[in-house]
Design a protein that fits this description.
mainly alpha; single chain
Length: 155
């Protein structure tokens, strides 16, 4: 028996509060499948946010203080993503839907998540291409104003 058997016991909370969906930590949402995608999607949303912002949306800390802080967070019903400055609208929307406090309102359709991620990638590529075009046009204008005609022509 021992501690190792607790790793697979139903009702045992495993994980880090920083990535844990609100319904997982306090045994809530009894009507949800505990192996359903809601909790995983929430954690992936938190990881995605951390990759982009280089910080956790909420740092619950360690030990018993962490569980108390997490319990207060869950009771508050707050959204986890408070600082979304610097994130584009598409990314903000996706992460907000993935980390929705109510698991029944959370975006859990992986095909839809994939489509949304592809939209974000395309939008980023278009923005980068537009920035390169603008930079090239500005450089050409500066060259023209300074009398530089570009590379010498061969005869």
């Amino acid at each position: 028996a021992g501690a190792a058997s607790e790793l697979s016991n139903v009702g045992v909370v495993m994980g880090t509060f920083d990535y844990m969906a609100p319904e997982a930590g306090l045994g809530g949402a009894k009507d949800l499948d505990p192996t359903g995608p809601e909790r995983d999607v929430y954690a992936v949303g938190i990881m995605h946010y951390r990759l982009l912002k280089q910080k956790l949306p909420t740092d619950f800390g360690d030990g018993s203080a962490a569980s108390l802080k997490f319990a207060r967070f869950v009771d508050s019903g707050e959204r986890p993503l408070k600082d979304v400055n610097g994130l584009d609208a598409l990314t903000r929307g996706l992460l907000t839907q993935m980390t929705e406090p109510d698991p029944k309102s959370r975006l859990v359709d992986f095909d839809h998540i994939e489509v949304r991620l592809l939209q974000i990638i395309r939008a980023e590529a278009e923005t980068a291409a537009a920035a390169r075009t603008l930079a090239a046009a500005q450089a050409a204008e500066e060259d023209e104003q300074s009398g530089i005609d570009g590379p010498p022509k061969e005869d």
